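Subject: Sanity check before I submit

Could someone independently write out the structure tokens for this chain? I want to compare against mine line by line before I put it in a report. The sequence has 579 residues.
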Amino acid sequence: MLMEVAEERSGEDGREEYTKDGTVDLKGRPVLRSKTGRWTACSFILGYEMCERMSYYGIASNLVLYLTRELHEGTVKSANNVTNWAGFVWMAPILGAYIADAHLGRYRTFVMASGIYVLGMSLLTLAVTVPALKPPSCGNGVKDEDCDKHASTFQIGIFYFALYMIAIGTGGTKPNISTMGADQFDDFDPKERTQKLSFFNFWVLGIVFGTLFSFTFLVYIQDNVGWGLGYGLPTLGLAVSVLVFLVGTPFYRHRLPSGSPLTRMSMVVVAAVRKWKLAVPKDPKELHELSLDDYSNLGKFRIDHTPILRITRQSRKTKQMIKMIPVLVATLIPSAITAQVGTLFVKQGTTLNRSLGPHFEIPPACLSAFVTIFMFISLLIYDRYFVPAIRKHTGDPRGISMLQRLGIGLVFHIIIMVTACFAEKRRLGIAKQNGILEQNQTVPLTIFILLPQFALMGIADTFVDVAKLEFFYDQAPQGMKSLGTSYFTTSIGIGNFLSSFLLTVVSHITKKDGHRGWIQNNLNTSRLDYFYAFYAVLSFLNLLFFLLVAKSYVYNEDVDVIESNRELQKVLEPSSYGA
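---
Independent answer below. Compare away.
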């Protein structure tokens, strides 16, 4: 058999066996299990992700306040510009996944995109530092509404050009780095396969440490020292993270580009439409690419045909990708809710008492650190205590299924928006009691009234974000893993665009017939509590939809054995050794 051939070749000169999942080195040659991959390679990848997330959230976490304070944008405009940018950041990975899977491979796509990413961060730092590029200062003590100095069109253009350069860079790095990390574990080796089950949890923990640094130290620097240093440090951090990744190059396992999955999916759909009237062959054998003997030798059963599509390898993969789309749709509302953390939640914080002692004020965006802290704590509890305990009853290595984990997170999202609604109602009540109706007046209520909604968001992310990432990667067939990971980023991207859409529509509708509207530049006269209640209702309806989807979903096989053997056969050909 093929596996025995691989072991014989490796055993002739005393070396250990090659990986059995078709992974290769950068030159397309088979790689030894003992010298590549596993946690050694993943340590560099996790190090990159931790530094990169520090850099990204060093910009994203406080961006709404920069747009408000420096570019003098209103509540709706600043929030929408943040979520539109974030939406583009998370949608761009579709293009990055296509380039990686169809042409360059994950490693080369990542390296090229990271260069664009660093250039964008550098230009953004210059845009807030160089006098000719940054907006003119209004001076201390001047209110935003009284300031007559505004950024020029050129200055605004440079700032947003840099932001969208960053978005393009993340488009090439985001879908490939997590998938590449998971590729470091061979699904055909029981020990490595077990280790991969914990990879995504450690992946999220790396993100936790990076974001915690940005939500605390970097946000403080931006609010109290200056935007130049506050953006310069994330830029330096990104450059360091890319160097960390490059250092680990000799240890990485790679997968050969297998062609555009989008093209193959399109071909299957077109073929299905063109041939839907054709009669099904009388001999079912004609519907399979392999003979009965091939399936028997591989220890697998053939899948029966359907009346619509021939069960070929490509049609099967296409159906596997298509059947995940309803789950993707069910994650859009949660992604829109998560977008409020970096926009309206932060804007709320600017209206509250942020004093912590006589000489220290908490930056509003610092509360986002509690999302990270509670996510870290709940991840540890989940992985160390919950999973081992529940595994005894379910027999599932994950404890509970991926969709069950996601469903628990969706329940938390309902609780979050109800909690935020009551917190905002209390803030408005205190403001009214004290006659605080001006835009820049501080409500005599501690900023920690918002802590529960931030903390609950961290717990929800333990369930929603980890489950989404693991689900879309695990359920995507071989050759489409990057596209599967891009489902995760697409969920967040569309969720951010949905947030912008809902905010704009609600703001417009509630201003009709002479009403003030729910969302104004002056939050002390707005009705964000109504807006949060609206999100709570949407979350409940979305949960019902998800339950219908989850009930009918059938999980795919964990390993595509047939294709992995074919990939291995390609790299074991004599020509591969001479490459």
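---
OP: Matches mine. For the report I'm noting this point. The radius of gyration is 26 Å.
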